[in-house]
Amino acid sequence: MSKYRNIVWFLKAMQEYTRGGYETASRNFLAKDLSVNLDGQSFMITGANSGIGKATAMAIAKKGGTVHMVCRNKERAESAREDIVKEAGNNNIHVHILDLSETRKVWEFAEDFKSKHTSLNVLINNAGSMLNIREVNFEGLEKNFAINTLGVYILTKGLIPLLEKNTEPRVITVSSGGMLVQKLRITDLQTEKRMFDSTMVYAQNKRQQVVMTEEWARTYPRIHFSVMHPGWADTPAVVMAMPQLYESLRCRLRTPEQGADTVIWLAVSPAAARTPSGKFFQDRRMVPVHLPLAWTRYSREKARALMVRLETLAKRIQPSGGRSQLNSPAIETTGSLQDCIKKAA
């Protein structure tokens, strides 16, 4: 079945995820959807110093929005900020340094941001990772999972109280169409029991992002949640993580701006706000989260189980004395992180 999924997905990808796929889809785009004034609105974008994140930050800055760039590297972040300020003519661009692989610091960042800012209209979870070798962070978590799944979980849940103070708040998570080849897996979140295949680990993390978005939409109806696939774009992340794909498809890759288009549409368009919360998007339209006949569907109980496990891990790593805003059923969190995962089953 996995072979079938991979074949069907690749055929779909070659038609839809390339630059040609974007150009075909964009014929139906409405220019008025992005004709908005964002003065007085604030946006947080992770991984905003390059690629899709920078293109998103640039577009929002040009429309007058206040942008909070959350980046790992200070030098590259400041350089990107200078570019955005110069081109957009908008000085309300702020740099925050955070390595999402350092899970405890994600907690600390969310709490610090809430203490210093009274408003956040939109959170864009753009930063991602595809490390080709299994590595663990200080807390003993596999780094791809820590960045792509648990970091997104903690940052989003931590900022929900601030988002809910605003009118029509939104959360957009940049996922990947690669998640279509993966069934939801709620055991072995750290990829300890199976061969480490970075591409499949990444796809599994992206499937987990889809599930998180669906569950958040049910739990927090005041916020519009969405998750999206940007297509295959020519970005530094693609060059670094998938050099063979980059070399073979370089002439067919989307530009960062094309990859960012649906992120921007979801973040600012009134039309996007009218779509149901919790859905998966590609090129400004809702698309299925499962391939036909691919046996990747999951029950609501399994989705809830994932959320419980993430909550368990998040609370386990929470700094002592932290002002947690995460609210889930009480779970015993004594013992090792691996024990915590098992006890949440």
From TrEMBL:
<protein>
    <submittedName>
        <fullName>Dehydrogenase/reductase SDR family member 12-like</fullName>
    </submittedName>
</protein>
<dbReference type="InterPro" id="IPR052992">
    <property type="entry name" value="SDR_member_12"/>
</dbReference>
<dbReference type="InterPro" id="IPR036291">
    <property type="entry name" value="NAD(P)-bd_dom_sf"/>
</dbReference>
<dbReference type="Pfam" id="PF00106">
    <property type="entry name" value="adh_short"/>
</dbReference>
<dbReference type="InterPro" id="IPR002347">
    <property type="entry name" value="SDR_fam"/>
</dbReference>
